Amino acid sequence: MAAYLLAEIDVTDPEGFEAYRRVVPNLIARFGGRYLARGGAAEVLEGERRLKRTVLLEFPGMATLRAFYGSPEYQPLLALRQASSQSEVLIFDGLPSDA
Fold this sequence. Notes:
By secondary structure, the protein is α+β, with helices and mostly antiparallel strands. Helix content is 36%, strand content 30%. It is built from three helices and four strands. It has helices spanning 14-30, 62-70, 75-84, and strands at residues 3-11, 34-38, 53-59, 85-93. Strands 2-3-1-4 form a four-stranded antiparallel beta sheet. Helix 1 (14-30) runs antiparallel to helix 3.
């Protein structure tokens, strides 16, 4: 069953975040992940949007997603993202294929 990572991000250091953005897509792909949404215009239909950038990633499963997020290769990138932005990150399972 697919698993998803949803990140809401406010970039506070554009240069630092650009260094993260240049490198992380290849690592995501190495773990079988892919972008479903990244940035772009968003319209709030309910509630209040606190952060400005949305990223939605899909991975083959929760174990793979956690392996990516906890990988030694991602840890310096995670530190770079955290130093150059404010973020809220959620992970969750998708629906079974027969749902």
